[in-house]
# Entry
Amino acid sequence: MLTLNQVSRRYGGATALDGVDFVVPENTYMALLGASGAGKTTLLRLIAGFEEPDQGTISLNGARIDGQPSHLRDIGFVFQNFALFPHLTVAENVAFGLRHRAHAPLTNETEIKDRTDAALELVGLTGFGHRGVSAISGGQRQRVALARTLVCEPRIVLLDEPLGALDANLRARMCDELKAIRERLGVSFLHVTGSETEALTMGDQVAVLANGRIMQSDAPDMLFSHPGNAEAARHLNAWNIFDASLCRGDLGQGPIAVRFDQIDVSAETAAPSERPSLHATYLTGEFNGPTALSFFRAADGTLLQVVDHLSQPRLPDLVEGQGYDLHFAADALRQFHGAA
Ligand code: ATP
# Structure
């Protein structure tokens, strides 16, 4: 189990991480979701030991690792750009870590070959060992990078936006493969990404990093349906977040969230409605195949989205520039405390 306790990291006047409390349990695929600049890479670099925290502690299985040299931590790191050696073959890239690790480097060629072959087999690259790394596809390079990390049997594997350099089709396939490889090994993966779909698909657990802190760490379905605060909800691209004071009905003030698919739309009326509702102007629509997105602007300028599933349409015909009532069941809203 990896545990970060009140970890902070500042660069000059800027605070990248601000008292992060975070746990990656054993045998878990942990996805860490955060916007650009949220501090994801910084967090991985502190865990790997490329940098040290200004405050706080990092422990692996109960023993402190902060302050330890990086190469003694037994932590694997898969870089976004793969960082392979271009002049070495696939097998030489994988074997490199075994030959050169600071801790018990291997010299026995048979053992090196056996372990390299086993790592290549694990990532589905048996038979590719003799190829140059420029003579394989992007997805295969990704798997070489993974094999090179896994061959040293790390205690945990950190993956920095590992699918970012791959095209969309390959990304979907690698998602499945990464999950399967991790399950076979039983070692925890900590995968950072800016994509909520990737985080929700991959993670046994998903943590949201924003404003230098972990906002929520939960099972993906729990996070998606029960975000614990406005920041977590904002990262899921499924929730409208607006101030309660916009609504008719006695909701008070402060941020509330309603999911895109839980808002109904009807003609504007002055009559009191039984359900919480707000006025908004229809801006435009976007057709995405099985779903259609409609965009509205509330009185205070907040942009609101409503999703309609074509198999069960529930929205009337909408006219751009016209006002509508947006309403929802009282139990569909989540109310948070603090600023929106
Ligand atoms: P991205 O998804 O864009 O890679 P990230 O979530 O990985 O972003 P970090 O690279 O961890 O974000 O950066 C977090 C914050 O710390 C940013 O505001 C960044 O500008 C700042 N930062 C990171 N490294 C340094 C550095 N060496 N010197 C100064 N500021 C830095």
Remarks:
- The first strand starts at residue 2 and ends at 11.
